Amino acid sequence: MALTDDLKDYITRNSTTVTKITEKHHIAIVGETHLSVDIKQSAEESRKDMRVKAVVRLLLELLKDPKYKFLASEHFFRTGVIRTAVDRYMRDKTVPPAAAPSETDMEKIARGVEVIRFQPVLDFIKATRREILSIGSIISKDSLRDMALVREFAVEFKEHGFHGGDAGMLHVGANHAQGKSDHSGATVRQILEKWGFTCVSIRVVTHGGDLFAEQGRALDWDKLPTSDFIELKSLVAKTPVTIPTDRKWTGGKASPFRSLVFASDANNKVPGGLKGKVPVPKAMVPVAEQFEYIVLQ
Hints:
Blueprint: H1 3-14, E1 27-32, H2 43-47, H3 50-63, E2 68-77, H4 81-92, H5 106-117, H6 119-127, E3 131-136, H7 142-159, E4 167-173, H8 174-177, H9 188-194, E5 199-205, E6 212-214, E7 218-220, E8 241-244, E9 260-262, H10 263-269, E10 277-279, H11 287-290, E11 293-296
């Protein structure tokens, strides 16, 4: 069968409408495709974006498990106006005002947006007496950001009185959540595991930009038709659905997610300016080794 047929059969046999994490872990890491903050878009409008709706739904679903004592989020900075806005909302439910149209300070623009986007999650955290760990950082350089996020996490974790055996959740960008990566630096998850935490990663897939490619398949990277990519949402009847990526399949065969990579990652690995077809590198880390679960919505 073609890989798309394999994936469809595997998903049919292994997917569930609820997220059931079977692996032992301290930290459940939810990785997302970020939605940028735009001064031209209101916070209420951005909250309707499927990327936000899907992550909020998943966070609320996972937080129903009482073993998770905290949610650590990259969206909430440990210092500055965003931290102040989150702390005040958690104290008295004050929603920050929208930034003026002329505002250029991104933190001042984001403080209201982030609180409103994740308002249902903040309300649930408060109602169930959990804790918010603000681990966002102003450090943006790729080679430094993962460690910066982990350091902020370590400070928050300690200040809130948590210990190594306490379970919780991390909400970060997808690259930070990877168990294995094609990038040179260690991810947030890899650093946490070196520090003794056991982790499981869940990737939220929502829109057309989250496309996949088959390892070893020759693609014309200068003229890519949509049909050369695999869109997982087209293989399921309805969403949301949760897919474990590395279960044994029919006849003990390996999961087809071991032959799948994110198209955006593959594009970064293929030298630019080439003509004709160039194979997707087989040495790339497959989806099944990056994330234990994919959630489609």
